[in-house]
Design brief:
Order of helices and strands: EEEEE
Protein name: DUF5999 family protein
Strand order of the largest sheet: 1-2-3-4-5
Number of helices: 0
Shape: globular
Pfam family, one: DUF5999
Strand content: 15-25%
InterPro entries: DUF5999
Organism: Streptomyces mutomycini
């Protein structure tokens, strides 16, 4: 599906979210990646085969560092 060089990660790889954006609709809360993954703003995903990946936001309490 991906025509980029080097090719983007496939939908079944662990780094699938690193694929390039094909469509971005922040007003609707989703983006389509070139590997066919629908990425939602809550970090949930819908894979091309219909598999659902639950949201996986970092747990609260993490440190936030500001740039000086």
């Amino acid at each position: 599906m991906c025509q980029h060089q080097p090719p983007c990660p496939t939908a079944d790889s662990n780094d699938r979210e690193a694929a390039r954006l094909m469509a971005h609709h922040p007003e609707q809360g989703w983006s389509l990646l070139c590997n066919g993954v629908l990425l939602f703003e809550d970090t949930g995903e819908l894979l091309p085969d219909g598999q659902i990946i639950a949201p996986h936001r970092p747990l609260k309490g993490g440190r936030v560092v500001k740039a000086a």
